[in-house]
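G., the chain you wanted modeled:
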Amino acid sequence: MNGFANAVFLRAAGSPADMPPAGPPEIAFAGRSNVGKSSAINALLGRRSLARTSKTPGRTQTLNFYEAGEQARFVDLPGYGFARVPLEVRAQWRALVGTYLESRATLCAVVLVMDARQPQTPHDLQLIGWLRGVPLIVLLAKADKLSRTAQGEALRAVRSRLPGASVELFSSVTRQGVAEARDLLQHSLQAGRQNKRPPVKGM
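Predicted structure as tokens:
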């Protein structure tokens, strides 16, 4: 049973001042532009179009907050790594995301969505370097585009590189990994309710 199906859009924040006051534990979703982040959010929350999807990379330019009652919030972070976005816009996104990761005491985990066909890009690894002390869940999205053998190879490679993270194959099309990822989200939220994580340091 999906306990996140009552999630609703809360607020879009284009600057730190626009962020909602701290409330329930939050899980942030990160990933490079057009990797399938919004589709993953919709699949995990059991909603067809709660998070807006687009074929145009760089469309998400704000922190988009979603709330599931008083139990959880989910935050869709702007995508990174798309060269056609103007440099000044990319700098604004970086500053916004950095401020959120540094200061949000209710952040209890980050879900990093990677393309299973090309995981661990330099931008992915840069983000991981920022997240010292933040529990990390890695979803290898678009796994349906790989053979079973290639899926296994990708999973082993990422788990070997990121031994401290929870790594799962994922497909919003076939629903592969959805139940497993929801369990990981629930576990992280439960831990967040019991012990708020201190802000990130050293970014």
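Residues 34 and 56 are 7 Å apart (CA to CA).

Shout if anything looks off.
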